[in-house]
Amino acid sequence: MRFTARLSTLYLILLSSRSSATEETQFEQRCSDLTDSFNAVDTDILLAEYVAQGTNITFPEPVANRCLKFAISLADMCRLRLNVTTSSTSSVIVEVFMPTNWESKGERFLMTGNGGLGGCIQYNDMTYGTSLGFAVVGHNNGHAGDTGLPFFNRPEVVKDYAWRALHTAGKIGKSAVSHFYSSLINKSYYIGCSSGGRQGLKAAQEFPDEYDGIVSAAPAVNFHAVVAAGSNMFKITGPPGSATHLNRDQWIAVHQMVVGQCDGIDGVLDNVIEDPMKCQPRPEELLCGPGQTWTSHQCLTAAQVLTVRKIYSPVYGNDGKFISPRLNPITKEFVGYLFMYGGVPGYIGDEWYKYALYNDPTWSIQNDFNWDVVDHDFQQDLFGVGTEKTDLTDAKNNNTRILMYHGLADCMITSENSYDYYEGVSRDMGLPSSQLDDFYRFFPVAGLDHCTSGDGAWFVGGSNQYTTAGALNIDPADSVLMTMVKWVEQGIAPDTLTGRKLVGGVVTGEKAHCRHPLKTTYKGVGDPNLASSWECRTA
Ligand SMILES: *[C@@H]1O[C@H](CO)[C@@H](O)[C@H](O)[C@H]1NC(C)=O
Ligand SMILES: *[C@@H]1O[C@H](CO)[C@@H](O)[C@H](O)[C@H]1NC(C)=O
Ligand SMILES: *[C@@H]1O[C@H](CO)[C@@H](O)[C@H](O)[C@H]1NC(C)=O
Ligand SMILES: *[C@@H]1O[C@H](CO)[C@@H](O)[C@H](O)[C@H]1NC(C)=O
């Protein structure tokens, strides 16, 4: 087969020099040849094949593992799938998508991140990157599936999750791309959300010369605090049926109560709170009077009101030690109910403590979670997974640009966590925002849930957002990724981040989200769905 293809390539070259058909054949040939031509230590090539635009790519990852099962290719590209050994007991699967138009699109490299407990390759972020001509790498973070089970008694797998898979996949991915195109990579970028946001900041902290631009969204930075705050939710709510628990309908009522109390603060009634810091919900509004019940009056008991108050309060551990800021006060109750306050312990905390921290399958949030567990987790900080370092001097000196954004309606990782990290960097480096702006900018995005969707102008062209209907019809020029490219390659730093309200595949509004510490402020007149009706003001 290969021999025939080579002969026909030669034939075509002789007949018509540099016809596009020839280039295509050569590209396909060079791609399948990677099996022989690309050699790297500790690396097995699992697949090297040409994939045409529009192909439904399916993945060999095991089924019940919380990962996507397919993605549609958005470019003609070469797909390389590698298995890289990281220790005698661990390995990482690396995918490299290399589009045909890479040379004419700026010779850019893009690394994508993961989510949750790790092991899902973000294929939609990868295909999106190839549609813009990037060579894109994704990896499984050292284990298959968004599950903590593979951590059980395998510390090397935890190490991959904390940082090594990212570092390894970046190195091997870059060498594969340079080899395939016989060319040096011009600029390197990173994009990821949630755990992927944490990985982006990990790169900024520990591998500051590997990326020119890092886009970190809703980062699970300060990992131990994020896991603790999520796990503590179950302690607050108790299981369904307990006196402290609220059912789904009751949380919908709470959501409407918060909207009623806080939506107007920013001058626009649109289910979006522009600055949640100004919203202090008062759940006592829903308290039942004597003889009243949920059934008769849609009101809450005192115990339930206290639950709501606790959920919207900061979290303190042993000896009153501050652990985490409060949950955002306006969130999509559906996702929040599913993952945070529905009375079922979240799998992330449960599996992290069980399999990574204690190596004890009998451990459970229900029976064993307390503040000593949290202290132990912070103190162990397995392989630096906490990602708490606030000194980004090396990143600054390497000219690495960092763009962080966080949805202000995020119900999984509170956006206050990102403010805290940003202000920590400011203090640690002794740089006011005007100077952090040179290399590190933070954009709070009102009306964005966790990574994707929301009631506001949430679509910024970011990680996890390209699964949404209509997303691909939006001009990518002011997407967060191309905004970063402009910053890195043309020195045009973004003052605002363009967000669009995307409903049922249709854009119904637009907003230019201001960078912290400026506040996106309604001018008081004009259609609030127009970006021009808002401006950036000092608080
Ligand atoms: C892609 O293939 C998978 C697996 O065969 C299938 O479930 C999915 O519906 C396909 N997607 C499209 C858009 O054709
Ligand atoms: C990857 O390599 C490791 C050995 O390092 C092996 O245990 C594992 O089964 C391989 N995975 C795949 C998908 O080939
Ligand atoms: C590499 O990037 C620079 C901008 O940083 C650009 O001027 C140049 O054209 C790019 N080179 C290639 C080969 O695309
Ligand atoms: C760039 O980062 C590396 C670490 O990856 C560090 O050793 C080096 O000092 C940094 N460069 C500068 C100019 O600070």
UniProtKB/TrEMBL annotation:
| Signal sequence segment | 1-21
Reaction equation(s) it catalyzes: feruloyl-polysaccharide + H2O = ferulate + polysaccharide
* Metal-binding in keyword set: yes
Q: Which InterPro entries match?
A: AB_hydrolase_fold, Tannase/feruloyl_esterase
* Pfam families according to UniProt: Tannase
What SUPFAM superfamilies does the record tag this protein with?
alpha/beta-Hydrolases
Q: Which UniProt keywords apply?
A: Calcium, Carbohydrate metabolism, Disulfide bond, Hydrolase, Metal-binding, Polysaccharide degradation, Serine esterase, Signal, Xylan degradation
Annotated PANTHER family: FERULOYL ESTERASE B-RELATED
Q: What is this protein called?
A: Carboxylic ester hydrolase
